[in-house]
Amino acid sequence: MENIQVVGQMVNASNSTLVVESEGNRYIYKPRSGERPLWDFPDHTLHLRERAAFVCSEMLGWDIVPETFIQDGPYGIGSFQKWIDAEPATVDIFPPNEVPEGWLTIMSGIDEEGKQVTLAHQNSPRLLQIAIFDAIVNNADRKAGHLLTDASGQTYGIDHGVTFNFEDKLRTVLWGWIGEEIPEEYVKDIESLKEKITNSELEELLDVDEIDALVERLDAILTQPVMPLPSPNWPAVPWPIF
User: Which terminus of the chain has a lower count of CB atoms within 10 Å, N or C?
Assistant: First the structure.
């Protein structure tokens, strides 16, 4: 990809997140140089995790993460993710008595104005698939705004910079299926993923201990194919929600 032009910036992002265009295509560019140090993730690895999430999605055959690759850009090497025209539509906050029929309630609380509110998400096979994916990649930041639905109704997951930690850090808005059995078709995909890890690109993108932890998570799912419980040692839901 050549002739990369910066055309915008996501000002609310925690790390440098730029909108760029090249040869008529638009991408989200996250340069390594713009990554803020985190106490629980190795420095200068967030862009690699963006790519690793895409690779994992492709190995599963689930098409959750838009095309993501690593290359040099205007501010140095970083991740480039294909832009998708989509908006958050599958997770929202409602007054307690206005949660849409069929949606799954996650939690209730009080907003900054003192009003009671309820966090809920759609009960759909696609969201369930993404929730399973997040458990696999150990997503520490699945906000509602990271779930984008396009005009065709397909939902994608974005923003995977804090994934694949070797410690349990699953934090998500998609807790609607706690303890439920994972469909057999997804279990077969997970089994296939485990067989593909050795000598795959994932081993180039992640540390050895992170690969080992990934395999352990896959083994846990294959041994007991049910949706996980929130960890008592880590906040279950990211903040802010969106």
Answer: N
